[in-house]
Design brief:
single chain, 272 residues, alpha/beta, Elongation Factor Tu (Ef-tu), domain 3, Rossmann fold, six-stranded antiparallel sheet, six-stranded parallel sheet, 22% helix
Length: 272
């Protein structure tokens, strides 16, 4: 277990969401692959607590790790984490197999809810960094991110900038959708409507919950987006709410997707 310091970074986002930087007393952080997670430990009022979190930073940056975390009210670790701007911590080094190396196709569809976005941020950041220095990404990536409210789309500006790099041959598409499309929380027609698994289903005319409205963001062409995914064999990578993950298993099978990759640390004890 490695000692370090965890610090909350200034970000414009709702108070229950936070971006945190982890630095180690020993200097550079251990190497990792984009998509892996580390285990963070804090001394809390309930005792020493360990929880796994996906790493959002690019593995080319060795000064620190970046984590994207939601505060769980009544939880053990996250209330303590959000209570101080900086505090001592301990980590277990990165591990996990939720990486692009496990994808067996060039086209990868990433579907995330909430802070399940973190491993995909790491992966897209890494692909873009390589693209900037002339190393072909080798992947076509379509990222679909769902949240309850539109002001919860962490990293949106950064991801929009990567999507805009399509004009420089960076093959990345980014779609957001809010299950509660409230303009008071930042929703506009630039976002879709509905849960992200429902939006994915509707994209391929698969059954959806008739009680829940579903719509793509304004200006996103359904046929073109569908063709982008179906032009060649694809792998589906999912991270976030377990209900979303379970709901997409059957659509992935029906669509003949070559791979269905799930973040494995959901099998660990509850995050709190």
């Amino acid at each position: 277990m490695l000692p370090g310091v965890v610090r909350r970074l200034p970000r414009a986002m709702p108070p229950h969401l936070g971006v945190f930087e982890v630095r180690l007393a020993s200097g550079e952080v251990p190497r990792f692959q984009a998509g892996q997670y580390l285990t963070l430990g804090l001394d809390t009022p309930r005792g020493f607590t360990l929880r796994p979190y996906s790493i959002a930073s690019c593995p080319l940056d060795r000064a620190s790790y970046e984590l994207y975390i939601v505060r769980i009210d009544g939880g053990t670790l996250t209330p303590q984490l959000f209570a101080a701007d900086e505090q001592p911590c301990w980590i277990l080094p990165p591990r996990g197999r939720f990486t692009l190396a496990q994808a067996r196709t060039r086209t990868v569809v990433m579907v995330a809810t909430g802070t399940g976005l973190a491993p995909f941020v790491s992966q897209v950041r890494t692909l873009h960094r390589l693209h900037e220095v002339g190393i072909p990404a080798g992947f076509r990536v379509i990222l679909m991110h769902g949240c309850a409210y539109a002001d919860e789309f962490g990293y949106r500006d950064e991801l929009l900038a990567y999507a805009a790099a399509r004009s420089q041959d960076f093959d990345f598409t980014y779609v957001t959708t809010a299950s509660r499309p409230d303009p008071a929380h930042g929703w506009t027609q630039a976002h879709g409507v509905g849960r992200v698994n429902e939006l994915f289903r509707s994209l391929f005319d698969l059954p959806t919950d008739a009680r829940q409205p579903v719509a793509l963001p304004h200006g996103v062409d359904k046929v073109k987006l569908r063709e982008l995914i179906r032009a060649e064999p694809a792998t589906l990578m999912v991270c976030g709410n377990p209900g979303m993950i379970d709901d997409l298993r059957e659509p992935a099978r029906q669509l003949g997707m070559v791979g269905f990759l799930v973040e494995e640390y959901w099998k660990a004890p509850t995050r709190s």
